[in-house]
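From the pipeline queue, job 12 of 40. The input is one protein chain; the requested action is below.

Action: predict structure.
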Amino acid sequence: MQWLKELHQREDFNNLPLEQWTTADNLGIKGFDFKNAASFYPFIYQRRFRGFKEQGYAFLEDAMAGIEPSYGYSVLAQIMAKHKHKVAVTTNFDNLIADAISIYTDAFPLVCGHESLTGFIRPNSVRPVIAKIHRDLLFNPKSAPEDIEKLSPEWEEALKVIFENNTPIVLGYGGNDGSLMGFLEKLSPIKGGIFWCYRADSEPDQKIHAIVEHHNGWLVPVLGFDELMLQIGEKLQLPNLIPELQMTHDKRRGEYQRQFEELNKKLKQHGDTKIAEAELKEVRAAAAAAVERLARTLPEHLTDNVSSKCFVFRHPNLFQRKSVVFSYAHNRDKQTVKEKAINFAVKMNDSLGPIPPRSPEGRMSSRNKSGIVGIYPKRSLAKRNRVYYYSWAARWKGCPRPGGISWPCIEHTDNGAYILAALSHEMRTTNRDRVIEEYEKVKGTPKSKAILRSRPKIPIEDFFENFGAD
């Protein structure tokens, strides 16, 4: 829907409503139906980025940057790692399944993000297998209609092997490409049938009905991916992962710190030869700088009381707000005491938990260069062509995305992206359709002009030359 709104914004000179303008003739998409726009995804993508293929890749990279696997993926990861159900076939480019397996299990998946890797898929793999039939984001992903109209011979052979040994459960796939749908139409009926899940508030396409009937399968109404995974997780009695996640985090952090300390101890030993000793001097200098840099900023709730020659740890939840003191008076080695105090503070902060910040949200800081609190310029480097592109981004307390939501200037213009970021922050939402809908309402009104008055009167590229906004 976002791409349709962008095309409408750029090409409609008669101020028609979106639904009236987005016709087959205006878009050049044969048989286009606004009510079933999702089924025309590859054609809309091709139309939106026609002549700008690299921008299309850059958009996909930006849209997937910083996305974390949802709860449902944690359940899927455990199923693929610990049960006999090892294979996930997907038309998506993202790495959410692989990331979830890495985060929530100790398994290492085989990710086939290109047809040249299909030869490594085995009938009964002992490790999770992720089959990306439209390729991985970094391997020239397929989105154009002519690219996803038919599966490559390599994928056809691989999927035959997969479906001969597995009963598929289809979830989150609308059948909007010809490749997988065409393959399923001509594939011999799958042993065990096929379970095709669809959202309870929408009727599946007739093509889906035909495929389910062909494979003697079942249509299953569900509320959504996370909801179904929650139900499956309970049915399988999967464990609560919170204790294990905390233990893994503590173990990795402790191991990181131990190795750093061991390396520093090792470097203090004299070299066996003059050449070795000379080399060690440079490494010791780097180690000393690293120690100083890491110790320069003390953990939260730990302070250095220079006049009393001690480090003091104070935490509102600690022993009725009593303090713990680490003294380096009486000629004690300050660096040794500091390391001990830092180790204690880090462990206690983890145990006692964070304290809600007292500073009010919305305060303008001296570092703010955008003119609106929570709005900032962003520069991203496209991995494919190593070209920078610029966005205005918004972030706020409780934002579901760590990096906030960004609006590329190349798509919305510099001022348009700034207004969209301001509206995102005001509405406290990362739902792009909602923000664009609001943008259409305020475009050209006093509100949009008031927003732009806050914006510094320089091109966004200049922020990175003058302010170092990276």
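Job complete. Residues 242-267 form the longest helix (26 residues).
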